[in-house]
Amino acid sequence: METESEPYIRLATLRQLHQVVADLNTARSFADTLQAVADGVIAGLGFELSAVNLVRPDGDLVVAAVGGSAGAEALMAGRVGSRTSWERRLSMGERWGDLRFIPYSEGWVLDDDDVPQWHTPGPAPRFPDEWHPMDRLFAPLYAAGASGGELIGVLSVDKPRNGRHPGAWGREALQMYAFHAAVAIGNARLRGNMQRALLRLEREQQALRASEESFRQAFEYAPSGMAIAEMGGDQHGRLLRTNDALCRLLGRPASAMRRFSFSDLVHPEDIGTLLRTSAEGGRAELRLARRDGSYVWVSLRNSVVADAADGPRFLLTHVEDIEERKRHELQLAHRASHDSLTGLPNSAELRARLAARLCATAPRPGGGYEEVGAPDGGGADSGGVYVDAAGHLHGFDEFEFFGTPPPVETAPFDGHVHTVPPNEDSDIDDGHKGLAVLFCDLDGFKSINDRFGHHAGDAVLIEVARRLTNGVREGDTVARLGGDEFVVLADGLGRADAADLAVRLRNAIIPPIRVDGRAVRVGASFGIGWAGCGMSAEEVLHSADQRMYIEKRSRSKERRRAG
Q1: What is the pTM of this model?
Q2: What is the Rg, in whole angstroms, of the alpha carbon atoms belonging to the chain?
Q3: Where does residue 317 rank: exposed (0-12), middle (13-18), buried (19+ CB within 10 A)?
């Protein structure tokens, strides 16, 4: 299985892809946008060469930008390939969604056509998915990003850094990038048209009416939302005019939109983002309210427009629908942190959640005051916290009610509350509540895999994950550590509570599971560990794992299968 198709996608890769997609809309000119598209392939998608072939008014495609190689740029930039040759290429090879892949074994017929290319001969691949120098991979660019729309260009990529054909994740990333690249190119053209219209409004007094008509058409018929709002005075920010695209996006008629400002429509959590967005050249990503009460993610881009040379100024806002991009981001983030089979948090997410509850400072045995914060600390009057004998954390703000604080030197309180494990040296449960870590290993699972195959084993894992999730409280974490091992994080439990929870979960797992018309059973062994500040996430999991093995060895094989 390729790394790219595994559920544990590196967050660094996601951040790179997110960054290059975001950079597409920051270029200052149309030419800069085209170069940003080519460079983004190199920076975020793992290829060494890329070219943007843009459709000209006559239908032929010109190489408008090249990324990754100065030599390739000198050879290809500005050269033209006929529309007929490009249509032939896009009809050949393998279809990977919207992508077109032409292997070297088929692409030799294209060597002598008029499309600019940099491919060189090479030896036959050593293994099935090795990239050959004559392989070709194209990502068509369609108007507004829709695959059924007008072709506006083709993105050519070559030389993957890992030397392999892109897998499912790489193809999805390239296809999503091509979608946003097409939108960015369209927006860059739109911004260019708007800027030219605005320039005519400012500099050409004699052609004012013609300029206003040009602006009106660009405003009214823009494919993305546009709005004009007042600047200054008591009505600052009130919407004066909106185009059809914005009205459709928000589900509100133009007459109703004139009663609002963007501050009336923005999501309450995003009002700070809106207020921090400057009028001149300001950009923001936030949510706006639709008429039905739902919210849509948009990107706002502001410009200041003067009605005349010395007349009142207005705020022109470009509103782009980015709901689809945000949905893709959430999906990719979920894939990076969750198990693809069960949908549970994966090992990396489990460790992240556990580590968030821990710090390097361990509360002193038997209670007493414990210093919290940076080791070098601050002054006594810089604020701080202390731990009482029961392990409870107090901020200095409480001392006006609870008395004078102990004379500790500490950094300002950062909001962290110590996680304190119960005392396990005593046979008596003192009622202390802590963060229980239940390590679960299935008994008898291997025999199901061996007898009935991995399909049956997967079905058992999915059902066990469902039963574990149904057996815990909202707010508790059930994660799949790997294989047939699961971990439950349950906060606010005492020793007896944790033991009762392990029994309930074991009893939930042992009833028969129906798989392909047959009933199979697995048992479960649980080890109960406790998280505490001063421990690492690995130490906590190792402790619970060791206790699970002790519990497993304490029962016979028959009793383990019976739960």
Answers
A1: 0.45
A2: 31
A3: buried
